[in-house]
Amino acid sequence: MSRRKIFAAFAAVLAFALPSLAIPVTGELNIGGSSAIVGLTSLNFVCNPSITPSCPANYGNFLVTPVATGSFVPYGTDNGFIHNLTQGAQPIGETFLLSNFLMFNPAGTVVPPDIALDLTFISPGVSGQASCLAAPANGQTCTPALAVLATPSNPLGLSAFNLQNIPGGSTASFSVAGNARRISTGELTQFTGVFTSQFNVPYQAYLGVIASGGQIENSYSATSTSVPNPVPEPSSLTMLLGGLLLAGGYIRRKF
C-alpha cells in the first residue's frame, strides 16, 4: 500500500473517532420553577403542570433559570425533567449510577436535546450535629444523623442536608456529582451540583416532622457546573487506537 493510501486510511479513522472526543459538556446550568417533597429516606420532585402538562414516571419538572453558560446556552429558556431520589437506590456517600437524572424536554427548545446529566454521588452533609436540637438562633448549622440512613460507607447515618438558620428563617442545601453526557456521542464530562431551598422558620421546626416519618414540601433551586475533563466514549477510543495500530503496522511493513 502506498504512503498516500496509508495516510488516507489513517485520516478516515480519525474522522470517525475524533468527533466523540471533541465536544465536552462545559458551563453552568441553573434550574428552578417547581418544588420538592422531602421525606425520611426520599426526595421527590413535584411535577408542576404550569411547566409541562405531565412528567414521566418518577420524575418532576423544572425550568432553566438565568444564567445558562457554555454548552447549556441553547437550553437557556428550556424546561425538563428531574428524577426522584431514594436512599435505597441512591444511598448517601456511595457511588451509584442514575442515568438521565436530569434530562431536557424532548419537545423543548432544542429538538432533540443532546445533553443529559447522569447522577453518581450524593455527598453526606458536613455541618455537624451539635446544634441540631438546640434552641433556634441565627447562624446555627446542622446535618441530621439518622439511623435509617446508616450504611457501611455512611456509618453515622448522615443526611445529605446542610441546614443553617438565618435571619427570618433557614436554608437547606446538599451537593451531588455525576457526568454530563453528550447524547449524540456518549461522551462524558464530570459535573458537580448544589441544590438549595429556603424556609421562613428555623430548621429545628422541621427536624421532628422528618424524624417521625412526615414530609415537607418546598420550592428549590439548583446549580450544576460541568468541568472540561471529558471521559471519552470507549468505542471511539477503541476505533482510534485500532486505527493507529493498523496504520503503524502498514508503515512498518512498507519501510
Model regions low in confidence, pLDDT < 50 over at least 5 residues: 13-20, 235-241, 243-255
Order of helices and strands: HEEEEEEEEEEEEHEEH
Helix content range of the residues, please? 10-25%
- N- to C-terminal distance: 11 Å
Number of domains: 1
Oligomeric form of this entry? single chain
Radius of gyration: 23 Å
| Number of helical elements | 3
The proportion of residues in beta strands is: 35-45%
Looking at the structure, what is the overall shape? Answer: globular
The strands making up the biggest β-sheet line up spatially as: 1-4-5-7-8-11-12-14
- Count of beta strands: 14
Quick check: average pLDDT? 88
Instruction: Give me the secondary-structure category.
Output: alpha+beta
Short recap of the structure:
By secondary structure, this protein is an alpha+beta fold. The chain has one domain (24-233). The protein is built from three helices and 14 strands.
Mind explaining what this structure looks like?
- The protein is of the alpha+beta class and 255 residues long.
- The protein has one domain (24-233).
- It is 17% helix and 36% strand.
- It is built from 3 helices and 14 strands.
- It has helices at residues 3-17, 204-211, 234-254; strands at residues 27-32, 35-38, 42-45, 59-65, 79-83, 85-86, 98-104, 115-122, 141-142, 162-166, 169-182, 188-199, 216-219, 221-231.
- It has an 8-stranded antiparallel barrel.
- Strand 2 and strand 3 (42-45) form a beta hairpin.
- Helix 1 runs antiparallel to helix 3.
- The protein is globular and about 50 Å long.
- Mean pLDDT is 88; it is low at 13-20, 235-241 and 243-255.
